[in-house]
Amino acid sequence: MKKCFRLIGIVMLVSCLAIVFSGCGETEETVSFTKAIPADGRTIQTDTEIIVIFDGTPTGLKANNGKVSLSGVNAKIKGPFTQGTLNLVLTWDGGSTSLTYTVAAPEPEEPDIPPPPEGMVLIPAGEFQMGSNDEDAPNDEQPVHSVYVDAFYMDKYEVTNAQYARFLNAKGKHAEGEITWYNIPKRAWMIRFVSGKYRVRLGYENHPVNYVSWYGAMAYAEWVDKRLPTEAEWEKAARGGLAGQKYPWGNTIDSTKANYDFDGGGPSGYTTVVGKYAANGYGLFDMAGNVREWCLDEYNKGFYSVSPVQNPLSGANSIEWLINNYKNVKRFRVLRGGDWTSEERFVRVAYRHYPLLFVESANYYGFRCVRVVTP
Q1: Cys-Cys with 295: which of 8, 68, 268, 334 at CB 3.0–4.6 Å?
Q2: Residue 370 half-sphere exposure, CB side, CA atoms within 13 Å?
Q3: DSSP summary character for residue 116
Q4: Confidence of residue 242 (pLDDT cuts 50, 70, 90)
Q5: 179 alpha carbon, distance to own chain's centre
Q6: CA within 13 Å, CB half, 229
Q7: What share of the chain is helix, strand, coil (3-state, %, to 5)?
Q8: How far apart are the first and last CA of the chain?
Q9: DSSP alpha helices (H): ranges in the chain?
Q10: What residues contact residue 176 under an 8 Å CB cut-off, 6+ apart?
Q11: Residue 184: how many CB atoms within 10 A of its CB?
């Protein structure tokens, strides 16, 4: 009997030892950090979500910053984080890791910009290089300088004879006191007053209006609740998003691209229908040639040397003042874009023209309008 109990005891002891030794042979598997998205050392925003990936599921995961959520081998750490340097320390059972990020200031929200009005395109806000250093550039195009303009809408096309005739008929006149809006020529007229109404020469309805004075362009723009562009707005728009190019489309020009040098309007040259040639990168037509286009600015040969960076305007403290007082203006105004009579160098996007008389009209002076973007 004693031998039986002794045998049972030995068996039990052997079993216990087997259990103990088998347990000693087992090791707990270690979980390791694999990578982080965004990667360590990157710049993030205050609301960036950081994803940390392990090679297994970590237990007891904690972070010294942000809120932690775990799904399998992926952990998400959400802010908001404070601007500056973020030293993120993660710890879990059996491991730890450190990550460093630069937290940038929140990006400003882009204003909601309404779609362009009918017949207009959006010219986005931004900086561009104004002026030119090319071989054809006179001194008044220099120095080349950085200019920032706010977003605005611009007419796709130059104002046409038909559009301007509607304005004249609405006003019932083509002059206001001593100010002439539209000079009706005795010959080669495009609009004339017949039987109590301003009428357009047949076939020229969609040609750009010419013979318009600066006052006439300002009055029309006011009538349609728009305004003339500043010289800086005009050049930014004409460049169509390109930098350092002579023309709205690039550095070369020929008669397939624009109406210039008496080449586009018949044997002797004249205006052509608006939109006949391809648009530039912003969707604007005839930014080179056809008719020269009036701008708000006073012509100042040396203005580029003193021009402010943001929304420059020559000859007035503000656009609002100029619009409200334009009838009293007696200084030269700028024309841009060249016309159907112009040589190549005069239809470059940087070329600045001013009339022989400060606001005169001529058979190659026209315009297009812009409108302020109101979010």
Answers
A1: 334
A2: 28
A3: P
A4: very high
A5: 37
A6: 30
A7: 20, 25, 55
A8: 102
A9: 2-24, 161-171, 214-223, 231-239, 319-325
A10: 215, 219, 327
A11: 16
The answer to whether 328 touches 341, Cβ cutoff 8 Å, is no
Residue 372 in contact with residue 298, Cβ under 8 Å?
no
Cis amide leading into 143 (omega within 30): yes
Q: Per residue in 323-363, pLDDT tens?
A: 999 999 988 999 999 999 999 999 999 999 988 665 677 88
Q: What is the DSSP letter of 359?
A: T
153-167: per-residue pLDDT in tens? 999 999 999 999 999
Q: What is the pLDDT of residues 79-114, one digit of tens each?
A: 899 999 999 999 999 899 999 999 997 766 667 889
- Round to whole Å and give the CA distance between 285 and 271: 14
200 neighbors 206 (Cβ within 8 angstroms): no
Neighbours of 328 (CB within 10 A): 6
Q: What is the pTM of this model?
A: 0.72
Q: Which of 108, 109, 52, 106 lies closest to 84, judged by CA?
A: 106
What would the pLDDT profile of 22-31 be if each residue is shown by its tens digit? Answer: 444 444 578 9
Asked if 253 and 247 touch (Cβ cutoff 8 Å), the reply is: yes
Eight-state DSSP code of residue 160: B
What are the C-alpha distances in Å from 308 to residues 119, 148, 243, 314, 317?
31, 9, 20, 10, 12
| Per-residue tokens: 48 | 């960036």
Q: Which residues contact 241 (CB under 8 A, 6 or more apart)?
A: 280, 281, 282
Residue 224: exposed, middle, or buried by beta-carbon count in 10 A (0-12, 13-18, 19+)?
A: middle
Instruction: Classify 227 as helix, strand or coil.
Output: strand
State the Cα–Cα distance between residues 293 and 254, nearest whole angstrom: 21
User: For 174-177, which contacts have Cβ atoms below 8 Å and span 24 or more sequence positions?
Assistant: 174/198, 174/216, 176/215, 176/219, 176/327
Per-residue pLDDT, 304: 97
